[in-house]
Amino acid sequence: QVQLVESGGGLVQAGGSLRLSCAATASIDTINIMGWYRQAPGKQRELVATATRGGSTPYADSVKGRFTISRDNAKNTVYLQMNSLKPEDTAVYYCCARGYYISPSTDYWGQGIQVTVSS
Predict the structure, then answer these.
(1) Number of C-beta neighbours around residue 36 at 10 A
(2) How far is CA 65 from CA 11, 16, 21, 102, in A?
(3) What percent of the chain lies above the pLDDT cut of 90?
(4) Cα–Cα distance between 77 and 9 in angstroms, integer?
(5) Cα–Cα distance between 57 and 59 in angstroms, integer?
(6) CB 19 within 8 A of CB 7
(7) Residue 69, number of CB atoms within 10 A of its CB
(8) Which residues are within 8 A (CB) of 88 and not within 5 positions of it... i.e. 6 or more apart?
(9) Residue in 82, 1, 2 with CA at minimum distance from that of residue 34
């Protein structure tokens, strides 16, 4: 079982920055993929970025060059640094863990955290 707790969301003006954190109760070195997803009102949940144990960090086209995902194995925490935020980045952001060695076919999700970007 992996529990994920997000923090760092809030309200920011367009052009500003926020850093989201996702703290895991398991060693993230035993989790193949850590990722961030988001869901805006009336829209489907979409992938924002992932970070694999091997170091790969694919991003959605809409956030490339603005967002950076990183893993800190010592702190069992994954971060999403969000710069140059736009109103269209407004959404609930969810942390996801996939490929935990004990239950590799299970996806674990955080409770979600609101990010609101005002114009």
Answers:
(1) 26
(2) 21, 14, 19, 34
(3) 91
(4) 15
(5) 7
(6) no
(7) 22
(8) 40, 62, 117
(9) 2
> Which token pair is 53?
């144990």
Q: How many CB atoms lie within 10 A of CB 102?
A: 10
* DSSP code for 84: S
Closest to 34 (Cα-Cα) out of 76, 83, 81: 76
Single-letter residue type at 78: V
Whether the per-residue pLDDT at 24 is higher than 90: the answer is yes
Q: Tens of pLDDT along 40-97? A: 999 999 999 999 999 889 999 999 999 999 999 999 999 999 999 999 999 999 999 9
> Looking at residues 12-28, what average pLDDT do you find?
97
Integer CA distances (angstroms), 72 to 21, 76, 77, in order: 10, 6, 5
Does residue 105 surpass a pLDDT of 90? no
